[in-house]
Design a protein that fits this description.
Layout (H helix, E strand, L loop, with lengths): L22 H8 L1 H8 L4 H7 L4 H8 L1 H8 L9 E5 L6 E6 L7 E6 L11 E6 L2 E6 L5 E6 L4 E5 L14 E5 L2 E8 L4 E7 L6 E8 H5 L3 H10 L2 E7 L8 E6 L2 E6 L4 E7 L7 H4 L4 E4 L7
Antiparallel strand pairs: 1-2, 1-16, 2-3, 4-5, 5-6, 6-7, 8-9, 9-10, 10-11, 12-13, 13-14, 14-15
């Protein structure tokens, strides 16, 4: 087998179940190099599952050369779950998967996570070789700390939001993009801003009409409509726009809402209802991104 170029190696033995495949798929599965190029572009969760397809696939995926090449591909693995803090229980987290192929873990995980609730700033995000965070004590300012050349600088927020950010707003990262999540309470919208290259400014990437979303889940929405009890936990930018979704805590339920398709499903039922905004900051949630090193 040759990896990363050269003459493709043809598979000498074809599995019985492959014989009914279309000729194009048959050809791809017959050559290791073609199959490797496809496997390299799959998320880590898929690779973990595909190891059980056959001994040949297991050999390709676990080959050291394949592992090295896969580690050099950036922004291929989207967040696939959350570590969600149990209310009022320090350092106890439950794992909530976004992908239905991943089993949930409702038993608490006792651990200390980086940039946790006891950190000196709220929910730091690593992006573009710098740590980013929002300083709510001083009116919701956005700061970044450069890692290579330690330098603390302030990053401009979208003009209309300057010094108007508070604990329901947050910075997130998905597929190499820095995102700012901003619920607009008076117009019942959720806006997601994306930072342009070279920090040249923010653009509005998504706008979610919360009333439209609420119609898909009326019983929960009736509770939240009065208090506007919504906390955004994650935004996942898909490889295709229709794959992008936002994960929100709505009155004690964790909701996955596909932004373009406008479809919704409940992925987790929490033990308590949504806390007041003043308490929300105490219940941290941290995105889980699968690592190929552990596949």
């Amino acid at each position: 087998m040759m990896v990363g170029g050269g003459r493709a190696s043809k598979k000498q033995i074809i599995d019985t179940e492959d014989k009914g495949l279309p000729s194009s798929a048959y050809e791809v599965l017959s050559y290791d190099d073609l199959l490797i190029e496809i496997l390299l572009r799959l998320p880590a969760i898929s690779l973990h599952l595909f190891k059980s397809v056959s001994k040949r696939w297991l050999s390709l995926i676990t080959d050291p050369n394949f592992t090295l090449r896969r580690s050099q591909i950036t922004n291929i693995d989207p967040p696939s779950g959350l570590f969600l803090q149990r209310p009022y229980v320090p350092y106890d987290y439950e794992f909530v998967p976004f992908d239905i192929r991943i089993p949930s873990n409702r038993s608490p995980i006792n651990t200390t996570l980086a940039f946790g609730p006891d950190a000196g700033f709220h929910h730091g995000i690593y992006w573009n070789n710098a740590i980013h965070w929002l300083d709510f004590v001083n009116g919701g300012l956005h700061f970044k700390l450069d890692i290579e050349h330690p330098l603390l600088t302030r990053v401009q927020t979208p003009g209309t939001l300057d010094r108007k950010l508070h604990y329901v707003h947050k910075l997130l990262e998905s597929r190499g993009r820095l995102l700012l999540v901003y619920p607009v309470l008076d117009s019942r919208q959720l806006k997601v801003y994306e930072m342009r290259n070279e920090y040249s400014g923010w653009l509005v990437k998504y706008i979610v009409n919360l009333d439209d979303m609420g119609k898909l889940f009326p019983k929960t929405w009736l509770i939240s409509a009065k208090r506007f009890c919504i906390i955004v936990r994650s935004v996942v930018v898909g490889e295709r726009e229709e794959d992008s979704y936002v994960v929100m805590e709505v009155s004690g339920k964790l909701i996955q809402y596909h932004i373009v398709l406008k479809t919704l499903r409940m992925i987790y039922g929490l033990a308590s209802t949504c806390p007041p905004v003043s308490e929300a900051k105490k219940f941290g949630s941290f995105q889980f991104i699968a690592s190929f090193a552990g596949v």
